[in-house]
Amino acid sequence: MKFKQTDAQNQRVEQITTSHLVIGIDMAKETHVAQATNFRGIVVSKRHLSFSNSIEGFEKLNRWMTELQQKHRLKKLIIGMEPTGHYWFNLANWLSDKGLHVVMVNPATTKRNKENRDNSPSKNDPKDALIIADSVSRGFYYEYTRQSLVFQRLKTIMSDREFWVTNSVRLQNRIVRWLDIRFPEYPSVFKDWTCKRSLATLKTFPCPQDLENYTVPDVIDAWRVYMQRAGGSTGIEKAALLISRAKCSVGEQAAVEEAKADLRRLIEEFERVATMLDHKRSRKDLHCGYFSWYWGSEAVCTWPSGNA
C-alpha cells in the first residue's frame, strides 16, 4: 500500500493539539520577529516580539514563549520558521538543543498565503511571522533535524571546495582570454596551458615580441628556472615551435607592460588556488574514506584530531 501525501498532511495536522502554542518566526539578519497563536490560528499575544540574533535575543524569545504557555495553560510548543538564507541556522540549532520542537515552512507557502489574513498582498515582518504560524497550524511544514557531525563536516568541505573551484575556473577563463588577445597562436604550441613548460613560458616571455631575440637554447635555459627537465627532444621541439609562432603572431601589441602585469597577477592567483585545491582534494578523499566506513558499518565515526 502506497503512502499518500494526504496521509502525511493529515498526520502533521493531527500533531497540533488543543494544548499547543504555535510560534511563527520571520527570520532576518539582525532582528527576528515572532508571533504566537493557538491551534486554531487565533493570536494569543498582545503584540509581536522582536528579538536580536544573539544569545540575549534567543533567551528573550524563550522567556516570552514560556510566559505565553503559562498564561494560556498550553503545555506543548511548536516553533515554525522559514529557512531564509543562512540566518535561521543559529536559532534553529539553539532551540533544537533545548529539546524544543522546531519545524520549517517553505518560503513558497508563505508567499502564496500572504492574503489569507487581510486580503492584501502587502508584506511586513509581523504579518509574515503570523502567516508562518498559520501554516504550521494547518500542517504545512516539515520537521527539522540537525545533521550528524560527519555530514556537517562533509558539507562544509564540499561547499568550501566548490567556492575555490569556481574561482579557479574564473581565473582560467581570464588567462585564456588574455592569450586569445595577446598570443592567439599559443594553443598550437601548448594544448594544455596549465602544464609546467607552459606556465614557465608565460612567466618568462608571455608576449610574442618577448621572443624576438631568443634562440632555442635561450628559451630552454629560461625554462630551467621553473622546471628541472626543460631540455630533451620535447623541449627543443617546443622551443623551436614557440619561436616560429611568435614571429608570425597577430596578437595585440598595445599596452604590453600593463598586460604583462595583469597576466602575472592572474597566474600567481591561479597557482595559489590550484595548490589550495590539491590540499583540499586530499582532505576530501580522507574524509570521504571515513564517510564510506561510517556508512558501511553504521558505526559511530571517530575523527582524528590532527585531520579535523
Can you describe this structure?
- With 308 residues, the protein is α/β, with parallel strands linked by helices.
- It has 2 domains: 16-146, ATPase, nucleotide binding domain (Nucleotidyltransferase, domain 5, 2-Layer Sandwich); 151-297, Helix Hairpins (Orthogonal Bundle).
- Helix content is 54%, strand content 10%.
- A 6-stranded mixed β-sheet has the order 3-2-1-4-5-6.
- Helix 6 packs antiparallel against helix 10 (256-297) and helix 8 (216-223) crosses helix 9 (232-247).
- 22% of the residues are buried.
- Residues 290-308 have low confidence and may be disordered.
Chart the SSEs and their pairings:
Elements: H1 5-15, E1 20-26, E2 31-37, E3 49-52, H2 55-72, E4 76-81, H3 89-97, E5 101-104, H4 107-112, H5 125-137, E6 142-143, H6 149-182, H7 196-204, H8 216-223, H9 232-247, H10 256-297
Parallel strand pairs: 1-4, 4-5
Antiparallel strand pairs: 1-2, 2-3, 5-6
Helix pairs in contact: 6-10, 8-9
